[in-house]
Design goal:
Layout (H helix, E strand, L loop, with lengths): L21 E8 L2 H5 L2 H15 L3 E10 L9 H12 L6 E4 L10 H14 L2 E4 L4 E2 L3 H34 L11 E4 L14 E4 L1 H14 L4 H10 L6 H8 L7 E2 L8 E2 L8 H16 L20 E3 L6 E5 L4 E5 L7 E3 L11 H10 L8 H46 L5 H30 L1 H12 L2 H7 L2 H11 L4 E4 L4 E3 L5 H14 L23 H4 L2
Helix pairs in contact: 6-7, 10-14, 11-12, 11-13, 14-15
């Protein structure tokens, strides 16, 4: 029997409509140097030509920048590619790349990414230079091998270059872009005008201004104040960048890198001394711990103003309490036994109260009438030093004012000499320049006032320091706390055995008074023991009138 009779049971093949497959392209280079030599354009052309020759519709191109392939998800454009592919309603057939190494060099991790794309998302990978595509199992294996080879190649390169990089670092050379305020010259720089045989890192014009920022920080200025001062001199910097600068040892000439075991001295001029850098770091660390809490009316009693300011010798802040039946007030260390102190001296008290002894301590910083004029002279010198910054701002703003006035002059000249220069354009620029001029003049006025009020500040300071202990005794609890923090910016400790006060730093103004007083008293023994480090720093907001308007 012939089999022809059974043909009617055989299903006919449906004619397949051949749809044009859509693909996306991805390009990448690993450095700025490759970005400049048209490598991206060449990759782009390769992908476009491949799509045209093989009947693909190229719908999207991603990447197009330089990103290191040492990590996959640290690359913004690579992450963007994966996110867009996964979220696309209409998935592409494949992602086309000239060389598979441009996709990733992470080896096993790259293979897992490709697996997820193919098996879960349904998107393939095509290497246009070889024609390999993951829609074929043998080609997929070949692509996986190439991804592993790229990883192996990276490791080989690293093995060869790491010893040289470590040797460069140990010799004090910098790898990467120089931090803000510095200009780097050498072999590996983007700006061809800075190319030279050996590395050289110098402080640039902006860096000379940033030097002042370190001085201000050392004086205790807040970051937002420093930021404003820098802006007045034409340096715009974010608070995050300023905060990062304080913590970067590069600025004190020290090189720290994970490739070398120990810090080394860098081959560049420091912007700040190592001692000052570490001092600022210590200041920042102590700020985190918030050693001295600000005054709170709900916690500090007017009878116990030293609460939260005075420390025990062990480092703990003294707390305080009241014995209500006897109406007596006490300070106490919660950690040390027998570290309890009466707040006031009474007829029955065996030892002097801390409030009374603190008032006596402040009297050591009271200015004797016969020394007012010498003190004023020294204070004048201090204000002159502080006004250097204000005078620098004045010079910058004066130059800025001259520039704006010149712009207005040139605008007038163009308006009257050029008949095509219409009124609308003239009024637009004139309004802009006049607003700029008003802003500069207002800032000039403020800077001028800071300098001209010099004598008023001196007289105000003298009025206060003639009897600081009386000011403290007569003031309310808020003013008492202000005076405490003003005179002793780093706080004050007490030794429980003999009730002697200990301090690391005294406000420069009051230290000056103490020095003058010691000159008068000669070698007479003082009742109070202080460990003053001799530095001349002014606490808080410095000598602004608001500080001394207690």
């Amino acid at each position: 029997m012939g089999l022809d009779k059974f043909k009617k049971f055989q299903k006919e093949k449906l004619k397949e409509e051949v749809a044009v497959k859509e693909i996306w392209g991805y390009t990448r280079v690993s450095s700025k140097l490759q970005l400049a030599n048209n490598s991206l354009e060449e990759q782009n052309n390769e992908i476009v030509n491949f799509a045209n020759k093989n009947g693909y519709a190229l719908k999207n191109m991603l990447g197009g920048t330089y990103e290191s392939a040492s990590g996959d998800f640290t690359r913004k454009e690579f992450t963007k590619l994966l996110d867009e592919v996964k979220s696309a309603k209409r998935k592409p057939f494949a992602i086309a790349i000239k060389f598979i190494s441009r996709f990733s060099r992470t080896g096993g991790n790259a293979i897992s990414i490709v697996n997820e794309l193919v098996d879960k998302v349904g998107v393939h990978l095509i290497e246009t230079s070889s024609g390999l595509c993951t829609d074929d199992e043998y080609s997929k294996l070949e692509i996986y091998n190439k991804l592993l080879d790229a990883r192996r190649e990276n490791m080989d390169r690293l093995e060869k270059t790491l010893p040289g990089m470590r040797a460069l670092l140990r010799a004090g050379n910098w790898l990467g872009k120089a931090p803000r305020g510095y200009t780097m010259r050498g072999k590996k720089v983007v700006d061809y005008t800075l190319v030279q045989e050996s590395q050289e890192i110098t402080i640039n014009e902006e860096g000379e201004i940033l030097k002042q920022a370190w001085k201000w920080k050392l004086m205790g200025e807040r970051d937002y104040v420093i930021k404003q001062k820098l802006e007045l001199q034409g340096v715009i910097i974010t608070k995050q960048a300023l905060s990062a600068m304080w913590r970067n040892p590069f600025y004190c000439g020290i090189l720290v890198n994970s490739l070398i075991e120990e810090p080394v001295n860098g081959k560049w001029k420091a912007m700040v001394s190592q001692e000052d850098f570490l001092l600022i770091d210590k200041m920042l660390s102590s700020n985190k711990k918030s050693t001295v809490k600000e005054y709170s009316k709900t916690k500090v009693s007017e009878f116990r103003p030293l609460t939260g300011f005075l420390k025990c010798e062990c480092g703990c802040l003294l707390t305080s309490y009241e014995v209500e039946k006897k109406a007596l007030h006490y300070y106490k260390c919660q950690k040390c036994k027998n570290a309890s102190y009466n707040a006031f001296t009474t007829k029955k008290s065996i030892k002097e109260g801390l409030n009374n002894s603190f008032e006596a301590l402040l009297s050591k910083y009271t200015l004797d009438g016969s020394f007012i004029e010498p003190f004023k002279l020294q204070l004048d010198k201090l204000f002159d030093t502080m006004n250097i910054d204000a005078k620098g701002e004045m010079r910058f703003l004066t130059n800025k004012k001259n520039e704006v006035e010149k712009k207005i002059e040139n605008l007038d000249k163009r308006y009257f000499e050029n008949p095509n220069f219409d009124d609308v354009k003239y009024n637009k620029y004139m309004l802009q320049f006049e607003a700029e001029l008003r802003d500069v003049e207002a800032k000039l006025e403020l800077a001028s006032q800071r300098i001209s009020n010099h004598k008023k500040h001196v007289d105000k300071v003298v009025d206060m320091v003639e009897n600081i202990s009386d000011c403290w005794r007569r003031g309310d609890v808020e003013n008492k706390i202000r005076i405490q923090n003003l005179v002793f910016p780093e706080g004050l400790s007490i030794r429980s055995v003999d009730r002697q006060y200990l301090t690391k730093k005294v406000n420069g103004i009051f230290e000056l008074i103490s020095v003058i007083s010691r000159g008068k008293e000669g070698s007479e023994n003082e009742k109070t023991h202080q460990n003053v480090d001799g530095s001349f720093l002014v606490a808080g907001t410095g000598l602004e009138p608001v500080t001394f308007g207690l």
